[in-house]
Design brief:
Blueprint (H helix, E strand, L loop, with lengths): L5 E2 L9 H5 L5 E4 L2 E4 L9 H5 L5 E2 L13 E6 L10 H13 L4 E4 L1 H18 L4 E3 L3 H10 L13 H13 L6 E7 L21 E4 H11 L11 H7 L13 E5 L1 H12 L8 E5 L15 H10 L13 H4 L13 H17 L13 H9 L18
Parallel strand pairs: 5-6, 5-8, 7-11, 8-9, 10-11
Antiparallel strand pairs: 1-4, 2-3
Helix pairs in contact: 3-7, 4-6, 4-8, 12-13
Amino acid sequence: MKNVIQYTLGSCKKCMKCLRVCPTEAISINHGKVEIKNTQCILCDACINSCSHRGLQAKGATLDTLNEFDYKVILLPTAILSDSSSMQELQTLISAIKKIGFDEVVDISDITGGIYQFAQRYVNESGMRYGISSTCPAINRLIEVKYPMLLSAILPFEYPVEVAAKMVRKRLSGKYEKVGIYSLCECVAKLSLAKHPYGNMESNIDYAITIAELFPLINHLKDERKEEYHFCKEGIHAVVHDFYDSGLEKKDVLAVDGLDKVQQVLELAEFENLKSIRLLSLYACPNGCIGGKFLWGNPYVGRVFIERFLPLADKPVADLSFNDIFKLPESIHHQKVDMKKQVQHFLAINEKLEQLPGYDCGACGLASCRAMAHEIVAGHATLDDCKLMGKSEVK
């Protein structure tokens, strides 16, 4: 799969802001050009937000692709409700989206809410000591890259938008020759949950499009016409991380949003300092999914807006079976962690780190001396690649 975040600037300013903010040190600067390590990138968009020169971007598919299909379906994230201040505004928004060229607009809040409730029951009934529930690809990638000892705690559930796409495809099977399923994405990470443009060929979704890219066209097409739209209360609760109705006791559930806070909690979990918690519900964006980069509002006003829709929610939770949402552990990168090898690897990195200056100057093109130590242990660099090694001020 291609990297979702692309380097677009011909001449990098070498400000190194992107290096500093990357939570997994996936970014380096080589020969004046930003390089993103696919195996380390978690799709969190921190680097994009830090780049004032717009050298790092993430874009979805274009609408030219609509011509490929006989019947076009677009899946709407529940978070889009946060961009409308009233039901009337929401209905005109849905009407405008449909006028772009889609035959069907599908709300996925009932599936989001169903998976959200399933997670709570699963931890309660499975006998797990605790579980990690996240419908955020960035969080799952973060755990895979930085906290591999917690991989077995991730609940084995598919992403809501993928479950919705599978159900739509099944429902329309045999009715049309070519059905095109599009995902309207509120964040960078969810662009990866589609065949195009980033090559996730296992997905039931054909194309991923960003809300931000459609916004000018949506605004242009808005008029007095409205499209009826129904949504699910439980799905709204899910995207704003509010565990209002749990099979678990309230004190057993911890919902955390924002990458910095999530990392603090994962560090506590890794060292078994969250023994009273049964379920972690984690979101990379502030205020949950309504903090997605591609939404045109802000997550604070968005929370006010989306909560206005709670009394108007009249769609029941999707009746999901375990088979509907189960995802094989192998497909979400679960792997058995060899603790002995992990410790040996950690000690080898620390040994090299002690030989480096420890200034984290970034002169080598890496974010920190620890990142350099990682590269040395991996065989991709040597101590001689440190620009300060051997200089008098380091001796």
